[in-house]
Write a structure and sequence with these properties.
Largest sheet: 6 strands, parallel
CATH superfamily of the largest domain: Lactate dehydrogenase/glycoside hydrolase, family 4, C-terminal
Oligomer: single chain
Bound molecules: nicotinamide-adenine-dinucleotide
Order of helices and strands: EHEHEEHEHEHEEEEEHHHEEEH
CATH architecture of the largest domain: Alpha-Beta Complex
Shape: globular
Distance between the termini: 34 Å
């Protein structure tokens, strides 16, 4: 079976994802683009196919339709009805994106989709829950980008502060992709050095605020953010298509608290293959539960119910 991806919603985020995929080593054979604005997508496909002449990839890019769901391995949804710059909070998109997802996820499932949903549309944790509730697939087949991008932002900030390569930093952001994201300071390390003891309380708060604020800081300047989330989507895509068994922080289903939320998982060809356990200090436990409540609130308001079981490593 070929490695086919369909992307629904080909605006800033969707197209940045596709372009980033085509500029990296990947195992993607075919990309089908689906958007309300068909004419713009035709233009995108022409442009990308011309670009591909100058690349080593043999990936084919085409104007797609929901019929492409039948044999797609990944359906990435980045659709939205409200421009990022018109929102003051990711929650502002909830009502519109909920009805949008009824249409999109319903159409995808009606065309026999058997693959993995990869969700970027905001509020992303709630939209992942909504996707699962509509599609009624195993929650391991629904992945939200969650706090993966916040984690990259944290690693960047810490790397600048510590003057080291960001990939040498093991520090993660958990919780909601939004105001209730929090840094897992108790598990933050640079090699053998605990970052929890390196920074005082005030410095930790400042760094956490910078991470949470980063998205808004970018939108204020350039009206939207897309490169960071695009690379996050590429990393998740590659982990799935290459069956990498890679640890990433993404939005996944917390069965105990009944919400999709950012926490560490192992990603492979079946999607979320394992949830990793994580120890929390009392402060971090409070932050996690605050995030659960915030996501739950949105989810409960929309009477969404996710249910099934996960394999976990203790
Ligand atoms: N998860 C993250 O970390 C993260 C980061 C940045 C942005 N986002 C979110 O990504 C989403 C997209 O942002 P954007 O800047 O690309 O928006 P955009 O407005 O540029 O693109 C949205 C696209 O969705 C399309 N669309 C609307 N209704 C559709 C439908 N019924 N079927 C198919 N396509 C439809 C629009 O035509 C448009 O092309 C937003 O929800 C935004 O908040 C998430």
């Amino acid at each position: 079976m070929k490695n086919k991806i369909m992307v629904v919603g080909c605006g800033n985020v969707g197209m940045a994802y596709v372009y980033a995929l085509l500029n990296q080593k990947n195992k993607v054979d075919e990309i089908a683009l689906v958007d309300l604005d068909r004419e713009r997508i035709e233009g995108e496909v022409m442009d990308l196919n011309h670009a591909l002449v100058l690349s080593e990839h043999s990936t084919s890019v085409k104007v797609g339709s929901y019929a492409d769901a039948k044999d797609a391995k990944i359906c990435c949804i980045t659709a939205s009805r409200i421009a990022q710059v018109k929102t003051t909070s990711r929650m502002d998109e909830l009502a519109e994106n909920k009805s949008l997802f009824q249409e999109i996820v319903g159409n995808v499932m009606n065309h026999g989709f058997q693959g993995i949903f990869l969700i970027a549309s905001n509020p992303v944790d709630i939209m992942a829950g909504i996707t699962q509730a509509i599609a009624k697939v195993d929650p391991s087949r629904v992945i939200g980008t969650g706090t993966a991008l916040d984690t990259a932002r944290l690693q960047y900030i810490l790397s600048k502060n510590l003057k080291v390569d960001p990939q040498s930093i093991d520090a993660y952001v958990l919780g909601e992709h939004g105001p209730n994201a929090f840094v897992l300071w108790s598990g933050a390390h640079l090699g053998t050095v605990s970052l929890n003891s390196l920074y005082d309380q005030e410095a930790k708060k400042t760094i956490e605020r910078m991470v949470i604020q980063a998205g808004y800081d970018i939108v204020r300047r350039k009206k939207a953010t897309y490169y960071g989330v695009a690379m996050t989507l590429v990393a998740i895509t590659n982990a799935i298509l290459e069956d990498k068994k890679q640890m990433m922080i993404v939005s996944n289903y917390d069965e105990q608290n009944e919400v999709y939320i950012g926490s560490p998982v192992i990603l492979g060809k079946t999607g979320i293959e394992k949830r990793l356990p994580f120890a929390l200090t009392d402060l971090e436990k409070t932050a996690y539960l605050k995030a659960v409540t915030a996501i739950h609130q949105g989810t409960k308001n929309d009477s969404i119910h996710v249910s099934t079981t996960y394999e976990t490593i203790e």
